[in-house]
# Entry
Amino acid sequence: MAQSSTGSLRTVAHGAAQPVVAAQRVGARLLAIDALRGLAIVAMALDHAAASVLVSLQAESYGGLTPQLGNWPSWVLGLFTNIASPIFWFLAGVSMTLYAQGRLRKGDDNRTITQFFLIRAAVLAVLDLTIAWLVWRGGTPYTHVLLSIGVSIAIVSLLRLLPAQAVAAIGFVWLLLYQLALPGLSAHFNQSVNYWQAFFLYFSYETFPATEFSILGWGSLIALGSAFGTLVRRAWFLRWRNWVLIGAGLWALCVTLRLVGGFGDLWHYDTSLPLYYWLIMNKTPPSLTFLLFNLGIASWVYALFLARPRWFSMPFFAWLVTLGQVALFAFVVHLVIYGLLGRGVDLLPVAAPGVVKAVGVWLIGLAILVPLCTWYRSYRRGHPNTLLRYL
# Structure
């Protein structure tokens, strides 16, 4: 299963790598961002592949409650999949700024750019409430992440008209105030929560529709990403060693908050639990420790990408760049792919451990997803004025 998937991906790599090599001369910093976003898609795909065959890769807590982890392969893979959401949300904001800068250089005004973002937000909401919802397969209901991202993009499309320093300040205050409020929100909403409370403030798998990514919980990452997008081309942020330090700083703050307990750490480690539970943090709603831990890892991966720009001519990294350059398309399509594969596995007498089954479906899905994204990227470049430009 894995061998056939790898072979299919290798076939696509040669075609995908050629434009990447050319683009490398423009600036490895942008390819590094694309590759990092692509890695988030790959991690997300594993999580959703596992869900499609009803396998849990949980390595996080929800609502401040102690989780019941599976076997060690499942939670180790879960730690990998946990990087997806923080990276995806933060880089959504970075992409907004990079897009706006590019359009301004081509003569567009801010009104036209804001209109684009608002239409994109609406398109994401429509896709979320139709295709994504219909094809979802998992042990829990679909939680409408694209709808939450779309609403957050709409909010930040207006915030970005402020000076970058103001957007950064709003993002930090937004993040910190939410963390201050989180223990109270958890105590209250774990008892009872309606849809709109869950959508804006908390989460719920019981409401209709279910919702996991609250606007106030996650939207600050898009605001902060938008502010960072104004700095991403500056020389200091192009030095890989600086990103090693940034990652170390984020992890140091995470460890400090974990040791102190309280602010920013909704689920506290209990010494009666196995030591590896120390790596388990509250994802939903997002605790600051969870964000710091995973964005610290992302910083180190970004440092590696900046330090090794030649890697982007190699197949695996070319695939990451391709996925990252059409991330919203990849998100919608991968839900379709894994929804179909999961239903297909149900019809076959597949006898394998859950984790093995999940990884096999994941690799098969990637073997389908990468060629589709490669085709879509080329098609969108050749047809820049169609509705597809909003993905």
Remarks:
- Residues 2-390 form one domain.
